[in-house]
Amino acid sequence: MIRIENVTKYHEGRVVIDDVTLTIADNTNVGLIGPGGCGKSVLLKIVCGLIKPDKGRVLIDDIDVHKLKPTELAELRFRIGMLFQNYALFDSMNVADNIAFPLRQAGETDEELIAEKVKQALIDISLPGIGERYPNELSGGMKKRVSFARAVIRRPPIVFYDDPTAGLDPVTSSKIFILLRKMQHDHNTTSVTISHDIEGIKDICDRFAMLDRGRLIFEGDRPAIEACEDSLVSQFWQGYSDDELNV
Amino acid sequence: MHRLATTLQAPFHWLGQTALSWSFNAGGLALLTLQVLRNLLPWRWQFDGPETWRNLYRVGVKSFPIVVVTAVLVGAIMVIQSGLYIEQYGAYGLLGWGAGYSILREVGPILIGLMFSGRVGANNTAELGTMKVTDQVDALRALAIDPIGYLVMPRFIAMILMMFLLVVIGNFTALIGGAVTSQVLLDVNMVLFFQSVIAYVLLDDLLHGLIKAVAFGFAIAIISCHFGLSTSGGAVGVGRAVNASVVGSAIAIFVLDYAITFASL
Amino acid sequence: MSASPDIPGRPSGREPSNFREFLSALGEPILYLTRTFKELVEMFGLTLYYMARGRTRWRAIFEQLHEVGNRSVIFIAVTLGFLGMILIYQAGYQAEQITGDLQLLGGLFLQLLLREFAPTITAMMIATRVATGMAAQIGSMVVTEQVDALQMCAAPPVDYLVVPRFIATTIMMIVLTIFAVLVSYSAGALTALLSFGLNVRTFIDLSFIGWFDLILCLSKALAYGMAVPIIACHAGLNVSGGSEGVGRATTNAVVNASLAVVILDFIITSLGYVALSLLPS
After folding, report:
1. Is A34 on the interface with C (CB under 8 A)?
2. What is the per-residue pLDDT across C108-133, written as a single tens digit (0 to 9) for each?
3. Would you state the torsion angle of the CA atoms of residues C109, C112, C115, C116, taken in this order, to the nearest 10 degrees?
4. Cβ separation of C89 and B261 shorter than 8 Å?
5. Domain containing residue A45
């Protein structure tokens, strides 16, 4: 269970995250939505301990993420996978080494087992045989899928997806969402997905949260968000604007 | 077979690529110099007053503290280094000459030039490079504004003028730093130090250094603008451009220094 | 976005006076310097910690040795070669005018080269070429979230990125300084021969060199070799914002590294002077 309690973050004198409290139960998949620049990515990075909040705390299974020593934090992160917005593939390594990196970092030394797992991971993302290639030779969609494979190679119980379909064509997007859903069904992961693709995450998430200017303005399941009276939420959900949108 | 062919080709590939990039940069630098000089011709003279003023302010204010700190320390170091010899021979009257001569002619302009290239040149390349990769330079062209006249000329003028002034200030502060060091560390009276500077250091030495300053300013301006405006490839490209710019400036500083020293003696 | 009234460190609702502005203009760079210095010391400590505790990644170290060393050789040869020519030209001209005696030129030049110019100018050149490269590379890794990804894979960035660069630069700084002495001295000898007709055998004169000069030279190279990579990596890891941030970081890296070289030079030269005057010669 992930509990975000009263988290506030300032950046250069501005409020980026404004007193957000949110609980994510085990085996739920939360879709985090909101207009660009509202602090979604920052919130995600706070949750996994990459950014320190100015106020509040984050508990993962009742452990305060920001009070851990570096070694304990490393141990916690073995249980978290993250797919980054900008792919974040190491461009000095080839695809196979990129995917194997989390395994090797976790102390796995059996190279045969690693090779087997990498091969299977590449089949799972339907990109077999690209292990020898380097990230800069891949297209955006391929990079996203490789990044996905790296995020889940350790089969972490918690996975964060930061905009998994940004800048991708509709066909590739749907492939990625299929991968996400498969991950949830096969391994019962707890996940948070940031996306602007409302149609896509409608089907893969069971709860939704919306941020606006650093503030949490909605949290609930699909019927609740569909019935929500707040004009910001309903406009965002339905993707239209009948009056002037205050963004 | 294929692998063997690739291995055999690799050195030639590298050679060709290096030659191409050198030719590209040499040509680009020459072209930019010509364009800048053409813009300086009286009948083509366009002077963007406010933009130049803004650049003068930024270049001067940004590099002033670092130049002063560098100069004071360099003065101190040169005094200690000369002091090691002076003490051996007991020729305390020559301390001001030894330190002053080396600072004004060589060490001052070179070190201030290197600092200037790091602070102002690198910053300039980064700025122009960012504008280039975010298509702002093309946007200027689309608005029928000449990037040379609008972006390069004010920086060019500001850098040469400021480099000159900073070396003047730097020389002065270096001598003060040297005097203080000679008093504190070497126990040589400050007055004696300055007397020695005034008696033995000639106007020639000062002018020699100032000519170098102007030449370095010219080179840093052209090189940093060229690498900035030929940036490509996002954030990585900006980093690479800055690297190329400071490396090119450093080489230019030493080569020009040699040429001026050789020509003037 | 509206600023909340209780943002830390920003007094609200008070008119900024001239005096206040003056104080903040004075205090800001001091605060920046002390904060940066503290972060640098922390990173240095962390680097030593991981060097002692972590496993050694030979491949990464060799890659960095190649990047720092081999790729700087031509640059160092050109700049230090020209420096040797310039210094001999200036010194020879003066000696010819004042004493007309060029016998001591080579010996004194070598001594000065070891004590001051070879380590310091080499370090300035490394600060220029290598520090900008490191800051740019690590900076673009930060911008593309690769450093975040390293952390999520439980690989500490200092261990993974800084340690190999630190080891490689420290080794290569010493190697390149020795190389610089050779290049600069050869260029100087050639200039002395061609411009003043000084015999190369007269020029090569090791009688001035003592342990003091060698120790001073190597301790400077060692200090610069440790300071430059730490400063460059610090600048790279603290990038924020896209290509603009990377540009700013590379500028910071070269300026701070060069400044550190000058400051360390001053400290070590003064210490050397004090040591020499304490020792009976």
Report:
1. no
2. 889 889 999 999 999 999 999 999 99
3. -120
4. yes
5. 2-88+156-238
